[in-house]
Amino acid sequence: MSKAVENGKNVLILGNKRNYIVSLEKVLLDSDFSVEFLPNSEESKNNILKDTPDLIIVDLEEINPEEFILCEALRSHPLSYKIPFIFLTPKDICGDLAPKFVSTSDRFILRPFNLYTTLSLINKTISSLQKSEILFSSKERTIRGDLTQISLTDLIQIFFMNKRNGLLTVSYQTDMAKIYFKKGSVVFASMGKTKGLKAIFRLMTLKHGSFEFDTNEIPKTLNLSMNTEELLLDGMCQIDEIESIKESLPPLETVITVNRTNDISQLKSSEVLADIIRLCQTEISMRELIDNSQFPDLDVYEGLRILLVNGIIKPHSANEKEEGKYFDPLVGKEDFFKLRKFFKRIQWREGEILTTKLLIISSDEELEKDFIKSIETGFKDFSSGRKIYRTENEFRDIGSFRITHEAFISLCAFPSSVELSPLWELLSSNRIGTIVLFDFKTLSSLQNIKEALQFLSESNSFPVVYAFNNTLSEQIISPENLKRESPVLFSADIIFYKNHDALSVKSVLRKVIEKNCRIELITLD
Q1: Any idea of the CA torsion for 200, 205, 206, 207, to the nearest 10 degrees?
Q2: Which residue among 231, 268, 451, 518 is buried most deeply as judged by most CB within 10 Å?
Q3: What is the pLDDT of residues 395-437, one digit of tens each?
Q4: Shared fold status for 10-132 and 333-513
């Protein structure tokens, strides 16, 4: 083992020591795990059985059958069948693509991955196994608990693995749901008027509530016959897909209606779309529509996305004409639908909002202040006091401005110090772009933040914009000349602006938001 610890959290990594695996090992060691490496081959089996780990991480090369031989052998052995696997994969694996030996305790993580999100998943997986042992250590017929301590997905998995019979009653808010188990399999589920698969998939999303499991209760009717492991895998896949779609939708409380200017006759061939349109004939919130639709939630969410993007249904707003009086939107509402994937839905103050980060690195504190002043001039709704992320120090929330009625961009200073590089991946998540503020005269100081600029330029496809103060002739500060002066700029999009010109700064921001950054020169008189 790489490190001996007293807490007994032992992780085995199967595969080669690539750079990202070494980084993961460091994070695990810093979190008091012991870590061991072995090849992903059958020859490793005996070594594993001599000292069984709490969890096995498998770094997959190409997702071929040979890569799963060792794992399948361990899953069928009485000494190792309960060990959970976390597979690091080069592409998505879900549903029928997953090997048949995979259980609900196993997870797939797509590379590249966030180290700290992976650490959280590892802790959660091991914690779930520990809770299973505690849960059934009691001889009581009735088991009670809280969903904040153990998730419903973990409960279903635990009851399945232990082949339990009985009724699980879940109390949440002012409602109650029921799930019956027979030999560990889910055979009945109800959540208010919703029953069957639609009910169980919704219940899997609950974060808060209490539960009670009674082994004396038996179901009178059955409405589920799906294999419980497949049910959980499909449910988790659907939940992930729904969460992804929700990022491109308005809040669920938004009232929607049919846009009667569109021809909808061609949509009658789709039962789901036709059902949504039927329900939208009168004003209805998206949440009510999803509840009232007879179709699975995932189909309804996808249908709503398609109909909204194509303008066949639209959000209803009684104050739509008056909204423009209060702020100048950066992009039109129709274009904004295309950008929703970059925004994250979060709880802020007393409601939900959509937000994304625009990171700012500046070579000069005064340059940053001037840039913010220009934003305040160009956007009436910008507020340095409205700090959505409420962070300080190196990664500080500079302020935010509204780009639609419910969507905000948070301007966040990005720490360029190499000492903070382990946090760069986390801090740069959920960003729509980066602006690096420089005056041509201080171009040499780019070297001081070279590592941060390279990370932001290469970590993903989000644009990095170098916004230079246009104080010299266009020939001297041409993109070609700048790239010769500093190789750091080679892969970046470059835009010039006049720092005290609100229209110029606004143009820079518009190009970041619209994802249309190109190598070009902006000259505004």
Answers
A1: 150
A2: 231
A3: 788 888 776 667 788 888 888 777 777 778 777 787 887 777 7
A4: yes
CB-based contacts of 236, cutoff 8 Å, min separation 6? 153, 204
The letter for the amino acid at 237 is C
Q: Which amino acid is at 332?
A: G
Q: Enumerate the H helices of 175-324 as residue ranges.
A: 196-203, 228-246, 271-279, 286-292, 297-309
Q: What is the structure's pLDDT at 486? A: 56
Centroid of chain to Cα 396: 22
pLDDT of residue 484: 60
- The 3-state secondary structure of 298-348 reads HHHHHHHHHHHHCCCEEECCCCCCCHHHCCCCCCCHHHHHHHHHHCEEEEE
Alpha carbon separation from 391 to 31, 394, 476 (Å, rounded): 24, 9, 38
At the topology level of CATH, where does 10-132 sit? Rossmann fold (3.40.50)
Sign of CA dihedral 283, 287, 292, 294: positive
d(CA 403, CA 353): 12
Between 134 and 2, residue with greater pLDDT = 134
Residue corresponding to tokens 């409601």: 351
**Class of the CATH domain delimited by 333-513:** alpha beta
Per-residue pLDDT of 357-402, as tens digits, reads 888 887 677 777 777 777 777 666 677 777 787 777 777 888 887 7
Domain ranges of the chain: 10-132, 137-243, 248-315, 333-513
